[in-house]
Design goal:
Elements (H helix, E strand, L loop, with lengths): L1 E8 L3 H12 L4 E4 L13 E2 L1 H10 L9 E3 L1 E6 L2 E6 L5 E3 L2 H14 L3 E3 L3 E6 L4 E5 L4 E9 L6 H5 L7 E10 L6 E4 L6 E7 L4 E8 L6 H10 L3 E2 L3 E6 L6 E2 L2 E3 L15 H21 L4 H4 L1 H29 L7 H12 L4 H21 L3
Parallel strand pairs: 1-2, 1-11, 2-8, 5-13, 11-19
Antiparallel strand pairs: 3-7, 4-7, 5-6, 9-10, 10-11, 12-15, 12-16, 12-17, 13-14, 14-15, 18-19
Helix pairs in contact: 1-3, 1-6, 8-10
Length: 373
């Protein structure tokens, strides 16, 4: 049986970030994935400033992968369309298959090994864990990181099932070359549609909602309304309810853990963040024995809990009540727009949002209700 310091199951942003950092720290690392790169991955492909900062910190350049940049993002609801403006790009658009391959290549270049095998089970032991593959191979490791997306085989092996996820569908569409970067909260209930410009009249268009349905036809209609011809529809889950991060010698990261932003659906930053933290936790566990992963990602998990509360306001009160029936919305406020820009950029967290809401939202609510008079 082959033995490693760390086995990483999955090679998306979480898995490859974990493998890259762990290899840099000197661990003997194996990446296991049933798919080869490049592989098609349904995703909006939008990188926020905080994600770009993580990539820079990792020493991974993606400048040549950026297809479009949005320094202005338009947000639409029933009260109108409002512009979020920034001096830096709020969203840098890339193709996920290219981003994933870049991170994977960086990890293997640093010494991480790779096996193209499908993991079906992970078994915890006293001093490590055993990884079993569909073709009957077994691998032993001091630590395992499950970064195999949603639904996760590694999580299922631990008896963990994520029941908190949104449904999303995306497509690469072609049309006019002058469409803006848009988030549209009128396109679907309890969710939004996005249009992210790539280049030469191509766009990443998508639609996601916590109400799980098949949205392919709806996305096609929405894209056509903007003069876009959608290509192949690709559906995926966005897991936003986190599972138990650590069980024995096994940690979960990224979508396998369930750390997508419950309000925006952003997941690349959260995946990379948890993957990096898991790598450091693995290094410390191999050297010292203890696993402190949950402490390392505590702030992110608490941030997501607050984001869940904020999402109730965004998709419920603001979109379905204030904007729809009163013609009022928080997006009309300069203070709100400034806060959202800071949130997207990573200069504010949801704790700042909840404090702002407690202080300011009653005033905005009264203004909206006065319109009924």
């Amino acid at each position: 049986m082959r033995e490693y310091d760390l086995i990483v199951v999955g090679s998306g942003p979480a898995g490859s970030s974990a493998a890259l950092v762990a290899a840099k720290l000197g661990l003997k690392v194996l990446i296991m994935d049933k798919a080869r790169h490049p592989r098609v991955k349904p995703c909006g492909g939008g990188l926020t400033p905080k994600t770009m900062q993580l990539l820079d910190w990792l020493g991974v350049s993606v400048d040549d992968l950026i297809l479009g940049e949005c320094s202005t993002v338009y947000v639409s609801n029933y009260a109108g369309t409002f512009a979020l403006r920034s001096k830096e790009p709020l969203i840098s658009v890339t193709r996920r298959e290219e981003l994933d391959k870049r991170l994977f290549d960086e990890a293997t270049a640093r010494g991480a090994e790779y096996e193209n095998r499908e993991v079906v089970k992970v078994i915890n032991g006293r001093g490590g864990a055993e990884v079993m593959t569909r073709d009957g191979h077994a691998y032993s490791s001091k630590i395992v990181i499950g970064a195999d997306g949603a639904p996760s085989r590694v999580a299922a092996s631990l008896g963990l099932i994520n029941e908190g996820s949104a449904a999303a569908v995306m497509s690469i569409a072609r049309g006019p070359a002058d469409l803006p970067c848009l988030l549209d909260f009128t396109a679907v209930r309890f969710g939004y549609a996005w249009i992210f410009p790539q280049s030469d009249g191509y766009y990443d268009v998508g639609l996601g909602s916590i109400v799980k349905q098949r949205y392919g036809s709806r996305l096609g209609e929405y894209a056509a309304g903007w003069g876009l011809e959608a290509g192949k529809m690709l559906g995926h889950l966005i897991p936003y309810k986190s599972l138990r991060p650590v069980v024995g010698r096994v940690m979960l990261a990224g979508d396998a853990l369930g750390v997508a932003d419950p309000t925006t659906g952003e997941g690349i930053f959260q995946s990379m963040y948890t993957g990096i933290a898991a790598a450091y936790a693995a290094y410390l566990a191999v050297r010292n024995g203890g696993v402190i992963y949950e402490r390392l990602i505590g702030n992110l998990l608490r941030n997501n809990e607050l984001a869940s509360r904020v999402s109730l306001f965004v998709y419920g009160l603001d979109t379905q009540f204030f904007s729809r029936f009163l013609g009022a919305t928080g997006y009309a406020s300069g203070d709100v727009k400034d806060l959202l820009v800071r949130l997207i950029s990573g200069r504010a967290w949801y704790g700042d949002v909840t404090k702002f809401m407690a202080a300011k939202m009653p005033k905005y609510a009264v203004k909206g209700l006065m319109k009924l008079g």
